[in-house]
Specification:
There is one protein chain. α2 runs antiparallel to α4, α5 packs antiparallel against α6 and α13 packs antiparallel against α14. The two termini are 38 Å apart. The strands form 3 sheets. Strands 1-2 form a two-stranded antiparallel ribbon. The chain has 430 residues and is mainly α. It has 2 domains: 272 residues, Growth Hormone, Chain: A (Up-down Bundle); 112 residues, no CATH class.
Length: 430
């Protein structure tokens, strides 16, 4: 059997997960409630689906979906759609959180969101059937289902975990560290697996594999409900009211279900008009930031105004951080595909698999930084939260500087050594 480096990386990643996850569970199972580990696995598989799809999204658009437009136009179109997609992925959790708080409760919101996301991944897979017409529209529909579904799933599973710990529970920070480890384990496995399947076998099998991951997450969560592992937590705030006729003869639950589906054409519209969405969100973001600053300076309670001013500053830099971070799914992946020397031992590593570096570095450096903050705290030298923001953004900027230096001074025939791309991902992971 011929040695294949990309498949070897996949196997190594799988072996790492099979070793690492049991260690996490075994060392913490007597400390935390069982619900933590259920939510860990549910989130791990959901992130497998999300990041598995993200690993191949821009590559598929640039190399397959829009390739008839020409290479450069296809790449520009792919980045624009990815930007619109990502913007709505971060926007819709606001609505999903409100629905869970007022109508659904955490459990139903998570299940509904997961079902929509799974359907979205399988819709992306269906877009590759040659007999189907309007492939681009089907593709947009798949992305729209994932966007709306993520809005219900992502914010509520994190909030649901908090229900199992008291406000002053000293275990809470550790619990969320374990939970977010699940995020990165799922991301690591997804980018290696879905990337390999998509680029080496079939793009649409890669999307379908992401959908299977989401189904696994739903099964884990549903089995926990059946076993009463969540006890009485995560239920609807008023189940009887949510089922009674509320609007046009429809209950609150049914209005939410119908409203979610009615949002899909709107999302499709903005995906197709990504420049319009960019302008709308830019104006909205500046308006929100301006309101924070205005209220901070006009508040009667000066202490409250100062706190809100801090929120406004963090809001701005938080947005900058995620704007740079999300380049991993768009410009950095397309850069890896065209401008990075990906040959190792005579074999080419798929461009999508480079996205696995971020979760890998998170898994490696998170315990190190956690230990470092504890040591600095004991020495009364731990940086403040704003200073940690500054350090994080500075490191992120430094990563992009490394790429620029590599392209300017070390490129050979227009190809940058992959070492520089790997270094660029280290600040994102740390």
């Amino acid at each position: 059997m011929q040695f294949e480096l990309a498949l070897t990386l996949l196997i190594i990643g799988l072996a790492f997960v099979l070793i690492w996850v049991p260690i996490i569970i075994r060392t913490n199972r007597d400390i935390h409630p069982r619900a933590l580990f259920t939510l860990f696995f549910a989130e791990m598989w959901e992130r497998f689906s999300y990041y598995g799809m993200r690993a191949i999204l821009t590559l598929y658009m640039a190399k397959v979906l829009f390739i008839d437009m020409g290479d450069d136009i296809a790449r520009t179109k792919a980045i624009g759609i990815y930007g619109a997609y990502t913007a709505m992925v971060y926007l819709f959790p606001v609505l999903g959180g409100l629905v869970a708080d007022k109508v659904f409760g955490f459990r139903k919101a998570i299940l509904w969101g997961g079902a929509l996301m799974a359907l979205g991944h399988f819709t992306l897979a269906l877009a590759g059937i040659p007999a189907l017409e309007e492939i681009v529209l089907i593709f947009y529909l798949g992305l729209s289902l994932i966007i709306v579904g993520n809005g219900y799933f992502k914010p509520n599973i994190s909030s649901f975990l908090g229900e199992f710990y008291a406000k002053d529970d000293s275990r809470k920070d550790a619990a969320f560290s374990i939970f977010y480890m699940g995020v990165n384990v799922g991301s690591l496995l997804a980018t290696l697996t879905c990337g390999y399947v998509a680029e080496r076998i079939n793009w649409h099998l890669g999307f379908g594999l992401a959908g299977i991951g989401m189904i696994f997450g739903l099964i884990v969560f549903w089995s926990a409900i059946k076993d009463n592992r969540f006890e009485d937590k995560g239920l609807a705030p008023d189940p009887e009211a949510a089922c009674k006729p509320w609007f046009a003869g429809l209950s609150q639950n049914n209005v939410v279900y119908l409203g979610s589906l009615l949002f899909l054409p709107i999302v499709i519209f903005f995906l197709d008009l990504d420049t319009v969405l960019s302008s709308v969100l830019s104006v909205a973001s500046l308006a929100i930031l301006g309101y924070f600053v205005y209220y901070a300076f006009t508040a009667k309670d000066k202490a409250e105004g100062q706190r809100l001013l801090v929120v406004a500053v963090l809001f701005f830099f938080h947005a900058v951080f995620w704007a740079l971070f999300e380049q991993a799914g768009s410009s950095l992946t397309l850069f890896a595909e065209r401008n990075v020397d990906r040959m190792v031992m005579g074999q080419e590593i798929p461009a999508s698999q480079f996205q696995s570096l971020n979760p890998l570095f998170v898994i490696i450096f998170a315990p190190v930084l956690s230990w470092l903050w504890l040591r600095l705290n004991k020495a009364k030298r731990e940086p403040s939260t704003p200073m940690k923001f500054v350090l994080g953004l500075s490191q992120l900027a430094l990563g992009f500087v490394v790429i620029v230096l590599g392209a300017k001074f070390f490129a050979n025939d227009g190809l940058v050594p992959m070492f520089f791309l790997a270094i660029c991902y280290i600040p994102q992971g740390s």
